């Protein structure tokens, strides 16, 4: 396989068999905690998609694939294979690597109050840039910044449990305070013009090969 492989699917194309055939007991507990029907539906489809991708690498039937979660909900499996999952509106995506720690995030650029939301996630440097943008460019900047930060935090394994305004995104570079985080790269990939889509990969600045599959 390549250094990184990204799998993309449309939610509506996933046909689900009986959930008894692929959800383990821990996943059933998670499902039962979800009260919103749409959230339950998306959880089932995303787990089915993920396990169908992982079985290609692990050579196991999906009912034998057990996904474990850290206290911050970062998924992992044994034997070790680095992967991460993201979904937003119509798409589910999964990134897989045999070598590198990875995170992925996609976001549908829905209409939001970017000014108010930006107050929650922007560092001081980002806020200055945002404030000087034309109104029509502010939404794109907000979602670029959000997606980069979430992909990175998912990659390091803490998700949104770290204050987003403590991290600064400069194009596709990451800073924590005045320190550049050079061990990680942020890599955009093509998905849809209405989405922002980013992979975070811990590869210490090395070059790597990326392959994308639409399924």
Provide the CATH architecture: Alpha-Beta Complex
Helix content: 25-40%
Our measurement of the CA-to-CA distance between the termini, rounded to an integer number of angstroms, reads 17 Å
The assigned structural class equals: alpha+beta
Overall mean pLDDT stands at 91
- Write down the Rg: 18 Å
Strand order of the largest sheet: 4-5-1-12
Name given to the CATH homologous superfamily: 4'-phosphopantetheinyl transferase domain
Largest sheet descriptor: 4 strands, mixed
- Tell me how many strands there are: 12
Q: What would you note in describing this structure?
A:
The protein has 215 residues and is an alpha+beta fold. It has one domain: Ribosomal Protein L22, Chain A (Alpha-Beta Complex), CATH 3.90.470. The protein is 32% helix and 28% strand. It has five helices and twelve strands. The strands form four sheets. The protein has a four-stranded mixed sheet with strand order 4-5-1-12, covered by helices on one side. It has a three-stranded antiparallel sheet with strand order 6-11-10, with helices on one face. A three-stranded antiparallel sheet has the order 7-8-9. β8 and β9 form a beta hairpin. The longest helix is centred in the N-terminal third of the chain and has 22 residues.
Key traits:
globular, 12 strands, 215 residues, Ribosomal Protein L22, Chain A, alpha+beta, three-stranded antiparallel beta sheet
Which helices and strands, and how do they pair?
Elements: E1 4-10, H1 25-33, H2 37-58, E2 68-69, E3 75-76, E4 82-88, E5 91-97, E6 101-108, H3 114-121, H4 124-131, H5 135-156, E7 167-170, E8 173-176, E9 179-180, E10 184-188, E11 195-202, E12 210-214
Parallel strand pairs: 1-12
Antiparallel strand pairs: 1-5, 2-3, 4-5, 6-11, 7-8, 8-9, 10-11
Helix pairs in contact: 3-5
